[in-house]
Amino acid sequence: MPTVRMVTDCAVTVDVDVEGMVTLIRAASTGRFVEAMLEFCRRCVGADFVSIFTYSGAGDPTLVGTATTTAAENARKAAIGYMEHFANDVNFDLATRRRAGTYVTYQTAGEISSSQYRRACYSRTGIADRLSLVCVGSTRSISVSVYRSRRNGRFSDRELDRTRAILPILMASLDLRGGVEETVCGPRIATIDEIQMNLRVRYPRMTIRELQVAARVKAGMSARQIAAELGIAETTVITHRSSAYSRMGVANLRTFLLA
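Structure (tokenized):
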């Protein structure tokens, strides 16, 4: 079974990559925050993946960001797999059922009892294990996770200690973006690919083109900008946008942005 413990003291003494931490802090207000987080974790503990999810009530998790040192598609596949099987995950259970507080969880691929979740998130993406910090709030919660790939092997005990030590740094750097509330609400934090992944899981009947258009609308792009980027006519963008709204059950841009 995955290991879960309440964090009462994160004071683990380890040497921290100061240069990497400065880079991470500087990236907090940019669009490359998740990539900077991955690089910091790679340099400190040899991490191969990172992810950030937020949770509101008992609803579906929302992907804030994910990145990997392996093929970029692996990060997307792992995020989609998680959003399809999150009900089987200990982090979701903590975020939606436990009292407010901060928790650390650790699990290996072999500890996941759901074969579908294990296959979708770990087996097909090459993930070996995961260490997470889950901050549970009264209305919103957030998890920051660091992973190792099968190619590089699971975290050693020393690396687990180092990872536990840097998790609060990752969470604090995330706070520089405005905290959990703003992370959830801020429309510019997630990349278009990440917005598209969230839409794909929530609305599986959308076509690829509808997803592409809807994600860019969510990111604040105009029909003209979307048409130029996708290489299609502006009228075609409007048609796909209307179709996406219909599949989502929303009537206009305002209700779409609130969905």
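The first strand starts at residue 3 and ends at 6. The longest helix spans residues 157-175.
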